[in-house]
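Standup notes
- DV: blocked on the single-chain target, sequence here:
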Amino acid sequence: MGNMIDLICLVLYFYLLKISCFEGNLATFFVVCTITLYFIIKYKRVKDSELNLKKRLDTQWENFIELLNHDLKIPTIAQLRGLELLENNNTKNISKEEIISHIKQSCKYTLDMISMIVEAYNFENNSSKLVYERFNMTELLTHCFEDLSISAMEKNITFAYNLKSNDTYLEADKSEIKKVMINLLSNSINYTGRGNEVNVTISDKGNEMQISLSSKEFANNLINGSKYSTIGQSIGMYLCKKIIEIHRGKLYITENEKKDKIVSFSLPKIANSIYN
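- DV (later): unblocked, structure below
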């Protein structure tokens, strides 16, 4: 619609310019000046918008490179140090099996982050498509609890969920939503104190479903914008946010009755991708 208006104005501009030049009509000359001013202002706004967009993209790119440099460097250094200990047979204070276990864990961190980077890139370039299906969010949540049970047991953390909805069925990409839940729960485990509980609440918000995690420390960390508290957290959270946004959902911080900050995200109950 905007392009059509510009085309009409341009045709009118040249027509009136011709009349103004050959007939010396002041009214026509005034209209020509007005249209000229309109195009000058619009051109300036377009250039300013392009410049602001470029600045935002440059900033995002710089931040992303900084995160990659940090999140990939630390586990790689850990792997090298572990291999050096084995190479030099300097394992007096720690067993070889324990060193190998740490190296394997560090390699897994690196592999997971590479996978997250590739997936985030594919979503950014619209080369990954969502596969929608109808599934029960409560069942998915239970599977996530089971997958993270070992990590939770290491800190003596228990999982619990609270249903505030009679219908917990959702139309979405089940595997992608599970990645979001696993990432959020993993971060909750990292930030929750030993022996405490991570509670997940599923609420009915009309056409949307809201999932909330009662991890105050995790929520406060997100608010404070700490980039380097946990290796891979920023990349993982970026991917979570992207997956939720593609489902036309939102990731945000909410408050409970005690005014405690909690991490929440909402999703449409019916399939509604931005690619549709």
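- Follow-up: Helices lie at 2-23, 26-87, 96-124, 137-147, 149-154, 174-191, 216-224, 233-246.
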